Amino acid sequence: MEIKEIYSLIGCAGIALVVIGIFALYITVWNFLYLRGVLSKFKQHFRGMDKVTPERIRRYFGESTNPLECIVRDIVMTHGAHSDDIRAEVAYLFHKHFKPVNNALTWLKLISAVSPLLGLLGTVIGMVTVFRTISENVSPDPTMLAGGIWTALITTVMGLVVAIPALMAYYYLMLKVKELRIEAVEYSYRALNIRREPCRCAQNLEEIEQKAA
Q1: Which of 37, 56, 104, 107 lies at a 20 to 30 A Cα distance from 167?
Q2: Where do the MotA/TolQ/ExbB proton channel domain residues begin and end (predicted)?
Q3: How far apart are the C-alpha atoms of 106 and 91, rounded to whole Å?
């Protein structure tokens, strides 16, 4: 089927919906694989974290490029000393390190909102074509009328077909993002406790020496 035939069947609004649908599919697949890979690598690296020495934690944070691990690193190295509200700090750092994901989710939500409107636009264009054909011909050709009605109906269906999965994918990916944020908060607290252990040990040692003196 040639491009002209496809254009005559679905119109300009239908072509736009096809492009938007492909873009939404790309965003969904890329973000799903990306978030899944980030979480799996994060859990692999931090398995048995409570048994890791503070020196190893500090050395490992400096070498990591995983965005979720970078959040924990920034909390431990800088933000943990500046604020007691770790959740607020994680929210800020999450927005900073996961900016491409946030932008992609914004586009996905926009697609879910715009697709039905494009379908409605195609419906209006199709009905305009039908009424123009009727007004220009005393005995309009049923084939021409059917073509206009087809365009009107198919674009509405296409708009919903793009919008519904896009909206479902948006909320699913938002749940994955919330899961990553919870993991970041939990491991940030654990990493801070591990790093503070040497300080506590030093304080206890000083107290023991003072009592002995």
Answers
A1: 37
A2: 78-180
A3: 17
Domain count within the chain: 1
> Which parts of the chain fold into alpha helices (H)?
3-45, 54-63, 67-74, 80-82, 86-97, 99-136, 142-212
Does 100 map to a domain?
yes
For tokens 């300080």, what's the residue?
199
The sign one gets for the Cα dihedral 197, 199, 200, 202 is: positive
Q: What digits encode the pLDDT tens for the residues 9-58?
A: 677 888 889 899 999 999 999 999 999 998 888 877 776 555 555 555 55
User: What is the torsion angle, in degrees rounded to the nearest 10, for the CA atoms of residue 148, residue 153, residue 154 and residue 156?
Assistant: 130
In a domain, 172, yes or no: yes
- Exposure string over 83-94, b if 16+ CB within 10 A, otherwise e: eeebeebbeebb
Q: With respect to residue 213, please indicate whether it lies within any of the assigned structural domains.
A: no
Say which amino acid occupies 184. Answer: A
Token couple for 138: 């005393």
Structure tokens at 5: 């035939």
The secondary structure element, H or E, covering residue 137 is none
Residue 85: which H helix or E strand, with range? none
Q: Binning pLDDT at 50, 70 and 90, where does residue 106 land? A: very high
